[in-house]
Design a protein that fits this description.
This protein has 297 residues and is an alpha/beta fold. The protein has one domain. α3 runs antiparallel to α4. It starts with 14 loop residues before the first strand and ends with a helix. The chain has a seven-stranded mixed β-sheet with strand order 5-4-3-8-9-11-10, with helices on both faces. A three-stranded mixed β-sheet has the order 12-13-14. The chain has ten helices and 14 strands.
Length: 297
C-alpha cells in the first residue's frame, strides 16, 4: 500500500515551473538557480526544454544529460513524425498540439545548438552498475563535480529505473541541493517507493507534488505516476509546516496530457468534497479519506 501521508509537501510558495508546456516541464524551487552550478538530467528523450530553461536562468551552470535512447536516427525519425503531425494538427485547428509538433521539427538543429560548451549529452543509461553504456548516479555525480560543479540539482525521468538507482543519491546528498523525480507505477513498486520516500525525507523536504495524468489511477484511486520535487533541508532555515494546498496548484502546474483533466490531490480529510467531486466525475483523491476506506475494506 502506498503511504500517501508521507507525500504531503511542506508549505513552500517560492516555486516556478520551467520547461515546455504540459509534459516535460517541472516545478522547482526558485532559489536553485542561485544555489546550483550544476544540473544532472536523467532521461531527456527528444525534449531538453527543462535543461534549456535551467541554462537560461543560470548560463554558467554545468549541465550533464544522460539518455541511452537518443541517436541521430531517432532524431531524424522524430523530425519526420513531427512534420506530418504538424500538418494534421493544423488542418484540425488543434493549435496546442500543432505548436508542440512544429517545434519538434527543429529537434536536430536545436540539439547541436544546445549541447556544447558546459552542456553535455552522454549516450548512457543510468543504472546500478558501470559497464559499457551504463553509468551509476554516483559516478555521474563525480563526473560533473570534476568538471567544476559544487552544488547540483538532479532531474530524473527514467521509466521505473528510478527504483534501482535512486539509492545512490544518499551517498552524495551533501552535493545535491534539490531533486525533481518522476516516479512511475508506484502501485506496482509500492514497497520500494515507500522506502525511497522515507529515506529521502531524512535529508530533503518535499516542496511540491504533481500527478502525471498520462498514468492510470490505482485501485485505491491514487495516481500511479507522480512528479515530486525535493529541497535539501539545510537550505530551509525557517520553521516548516505542512501544506494545506490542493494540487495541482492553479497558475503553476499544467496537465501532462492536454486532452485529459489533471488529477487532483488533497492532503486533508474532506469527505464532503470527496463525494462532491466523485459525483461530478472529477478525478479527485482525498488521501486521508482514501486511506480510511482502504482500512475499512
Amino acid at each position: 500500500m502506498i503511504n500517501t501521508k508521507a507525500l504531503r509537501p511542506i508549505e513552500y510558495i517560492d516555486l516556478i515551473r520551467i520547461g515546455r508546456p504540459n509534459d516535460g516541464g517541472y516545478v522547482v524551487p526558485r532559489k536553485i538557480f542561485s544555489l546550483c552550478d550544476g544540473l544532472l538530467s536523467y532521461g531527456i528523450n527528444k525534449d531538453w526544454s527543462f535543461e534549456r530553461a535551467f541554462w537560461n536562468k543560470n548560463p554558467d551552470a554545468f549541465i550533464h544529460c544522460y539518455d541511452h535512447s537518443v541517436t541521430f536516427l531517432s532524431l531524424i525519425l522524430f523530425t519526420i513524425k513531427s512534420f506530418f503531425q504538424s500538418i494534421i494538427y493544423l488542418v484540425l485547428l488543434d493549435i496546442k498540439r500543432f505548436k508542440k509538433a512544429f517545434f519538434g521539427f527543429f529537434v536536430i538543429p536545436n540539439y547541436f545548438i544546445f549541447f556544447r560548451d558546459k552542456r553535455s549529452y552522454f549516450k548512457k543509461k543510468i543504472s546500478n552498475y558501470n559497464k559499457e553504456n551504463n553509468i551509476t548516479v554516483e559516478k555521474s555525480i563525480d563526473k560533473i563535480l570534476k568538471c567544476g560543479a559544487k552544488n547540483i540539482f538532479l532531474k530524473m525521468d527514467i521509466e521505473t529505473s528510478e527504483y534501482e538507482v535512486v539509492h545512490d543519491i544518499f551517498n552524495s546528498k551533501k552535493n545535491i541541493v534539490g531533486l525533481a523525480i518522476e516516479f512511475h507505477k508506484i502501485d506496482d513498486y509500492s514497497v520500494d517507493f515507500n522506502l525511497i520516500i522515507k529515506k529521502l525525507k531524512n535529508f530533503f523536504f518535499i516542496v511540491h507534488v504533481h500527478a502525471n495524468n498520462y498514468g492510470k489511477l490505482t485501485e485505491s484511486g491514487f495516481p500511479s505516476i507522480l512528479e515530486i520535487t525535493f529541497l535539501n533541508k539545510k537550505f530551509i532555515k525557517t520553521p516548516v509546516k505542512l501544506s494545506t494546498r490542493k494540487y495541482p496548484v492553479e497558475g503553476l502546474d499544467q496537465a501532462n496530457r492536454i486532452s485529459k483533466k489533471d488529477y487532483i490531490i488533497k492532503f486533508w480529510n474532506n469527505i464532503y468534497n470527496f463525494f462532491l467531486n466523485l459525483a461530478t466525475g472529477a478525478p479527485i483523491i482525498s488521501l486521508y479519506f482514501a486511506t480510511v476506506l482502504l482500512a475499512i475494506g
